[in-house]
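Anyone opening a protein record will find just a pair of labelled lines. With that in mind, the following record should read easily:
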Amino acid sequence: MQFNIINIIASMPEIIVIAAACLLLMVDLFLSKRQKHLMAYLAIAVVIIAAIQTWRIEGVRPLYIFDRLFVVDSFATFFKTIFYLSTFLAILLSMNYIKIEDIEHSEYYILMLFALSGMMIMASGADLITIYLGLELMALPVYLLTGFMRKDIRSNEAAMKYIVLGALSSGILLYGISLIYGLTGTTQLSYIAASLKGGAKVDSALILATIFLIAGFGFKVAAVPFHMWAPDTYEGAPTSITAFMSVGPKAAAFAVFLRVMLHALAPISFNWIAIVAVISVVTMIFGSVVALVQTNIKRMLAYSSIGHAGYALLGFVAGGADGIASVMLYLFIYTFMNMGIFGAIIVMRKGGFSGENIEDYTGLAKVHRGMALLMLIFLFSLAGIPPTAGFVGKFYIFMALIHKGFISLAVIAVIASAIAAYFYIRIVMLMYMKEPAREFDVAQTSATRLALAIAAFGTIIIGILPAWAIDFVQRAVFR
């Protein structure tokens, strides 16, 4: 491998984030307890600088660097935009929340930056080894952030379950990678595709390797039956981290899932498309049905997230440029509406009130009309009700399926969406149709207002004017 200036320039966003995270570790030594809040502003500055650099170096054609281990293309830039947005919003939502939870430590934001760097490497990974390194760099900080409330037994339990099951999934994924390498002689995605397209024998070992890869990535996106970590982790983690992991790491996992399945393994799609179709259907139905009986709103949103992963997986079944674009658009929209609903939960946390039970929102519209309206917008979008962005995301996926002839799958997805609408609308009914059972004291700050405003704006504007978002996604699809 030859190192030259092009390698450095093209990987500068990742270098900025990793170097800044290491530098902030040293800066923290000189900050007093009263100055700890400055770390949030420094982390936001790092995210903005990295984002600007990412958009500056984007070119028309893919640029492969580090001996084709790393690629800079529109696809990677699109997903990095999601990562920057989710990290930026998560930091804004965390600034007041971690003070309330008494976990205001500088390491919180530094770990978030390390997780961001891992996600960025995953999005630009052109080799299975690079992807795996990025995945672990993302996962390890998120494990720590999940258990950041050290005095909370639920947070400790969530972190332990996440670590154990995450290690298991990593082992499964590594075994799949080793099998792919043994069968094709390479771990580079483009060479794997060329090898399989060139007539490599499709035998039981290749099918087994594909199943291991699906299982490994399926865990990261919380698809059934690899979802078992999600409910406890979402419930036990700090709510700001739950918001972060439900968007950023999930989008990163989908980014590499798309590259591996619809690029490297596209020549043998006839071997795995049925498996992914079954997983997507089971995931949609399971997530929607189990969410119906939840009383904890974070746990309900965990099963909701599982269901949404099922919808996104339908894009893999559709395949082609439209299928890839439908998944990307869905994840872009999901960033706004999911960060928004978790942001609404975060601002409800004040004093001894956590706002984690669904019944806690009874009569909210009678006291805080603005907050109730924001929650209504995000919940309607999650349910896929027009004219919100969630409707556009689901409609695009359904149309991609219908164009490829998968009409039965589209019908099943519509039914699952109708079931899911019930548990979202149930919260709306409690907020608007019943009298308040208690007084509400919302923990609003300028940072949380900005985060909620961005999330609401994205959710509404894409729903009303979807053409620009669709065009943005279609230009980013890898060919």
Notes: The chain has one domain: 5-476. The first helix runs from residue 5 to 10.
